[in-house]
Structures are given as structure tokens and as C-alpha cells.
Write a structure and sequence with these properties.
CATH superfamily of one domain: Immunoglobulins
Keywords: Signal
Oligomer: single chain
Protein name: DUF1573 domain-containing protein
Number of helices: 2
Distance between the termini: 123 Å
Pfam families: DUF1573
Largest sheet: 4 strands, antiparallel
Organism: Flagellimonas sediminis
CATH architecture of one domain: Sandwich
Strand content: 35-45%
InterPro entries: DUF1573, Ig-like_fold
Number of strands: 8
């Protein structure tokens, strides 16, 4: 008798679940929510694009210890304001300066100043990683130079 009661209880529970789940999902959709979600999704597709005139600069041959500077010019060719959040170099001998807390509107240009203290020897290449709110999230710039050692002093007494 207990088994028959248990079987009928299970059948009744399954039947109730089947009946309650027959609501049409399409009737539960709110049109206002669909419109706001579409607007939100379209806004998220708009991203800034950081386009540099050149991504590499060669200082040529320099003397060790001679400070150098260059400017990397860029344009926001995207659909949203560009915000640079950070710029770091591969070593402490290179210092990038970028427009901080300044959104760059679509179509506008900006500059990133890179200072190199002239250290190293022979062929030197340094990278600068620019972090921004672009689709890629970062851009890589390079500077390079051939660094000559200063003239060596002759060993021994000078006449």
C-alpha cells in the first residue's frame, strides 16, 4: 500500500510540474527591457582605436650618456573617447609621458613623449607599452639607437 501511494505521489508531482512549465517564454519578455539591452549592446560595440603615425623611432648613432627625446603622434580613429591609463617602458632608462586623465575624442590627435637617457652599448632597442581602453587593450612602441662608447682616455701619464 505504501508503494502504491508513493508511486501515485510521484506521478502527481510530475504532472503538476509538466502543467506549470507550459507558460510560453515569449509572453514573459518585456519590450522595454529588450530596447534598453539593444541600446546598451550597441554602445559597448563603440570603441576607441589608437592609430600611431609610426610605432618605431630610430635615433641613429648617438654617444653614450647623451639624452634623446622623440614624440609619437597618434589619432583616435574609433567611435568612443580614448583614455590612456598607463605607459611603461622595458627599462628605467626610457621614460614615457602621456596625456593623463584626458579623454581624446574620436578624430582628435594626441602625443606621447619618450625620453631616453642614452645608456647602453652598441645596438639598443627599448619598448614602450601603452595601456588604453581600446579593443586590444595595449599598444607597443619601440625606440632604437646605436650607442657609441665615449672616447677612451689613454692609459698612463699624459705629456
Amino acid at each position: 500500500m505504501k508503494r502504491i501511494t508513493t508511486v501515485f505521489s510521484l506521478i502527481a508531482a510530475v504532472a503538476l510540474m509538466g502543467i506549470s512549465c507550459k507558460d510560453k517564454a515569449s509572453e514573459k519578455i518585456v519590450a522595454d527591457n529588450v530596447e534598453s539591452a539593444t541600446t546598451r549592446d550597441e554602445a559597448q560595440k563603440k570603441l576607441p582605436v589608437m592609430t600611431f603615425e609610426t610605432s618605431e623611432f630610430d635615433f641613429g648613432t648617438i654617444q653614450r650618456g647623451t639624452p634623446q627625446e622623440t614624440v609619437f603622434k597618434f589619432t583616435n580613429t574609433g567611435d568612443a573617447p580614448l583614455i590612456i591609463t598607463d605607459a611603461k617602458s622595458s627599462c628605467g632608462c626610457t621614460v614615457p609621458e602621456y596625456p593623463k586623465n584626458t579623454p581624446i575624442a574620436p578624430g582628435e590627435t594626441g602625443e606621447l613623449l619618450v625620453k631616453f637617457n642614452g645608456s647602453g652599448q652598441n645596438q639598443v632597442t627599448k619598448t614602450i607599452t601603452v595601456t588604453a581602453n581600446t579593443a586590444k587593450g595595449s599598444e607597443i612602441l619601440r625606440i632604437k639607437a646605436f650607442v657609441n662608447a665615449p672616447e677612451a682616455m689613454p692609459a698612463g701619464p699624459v705629456k
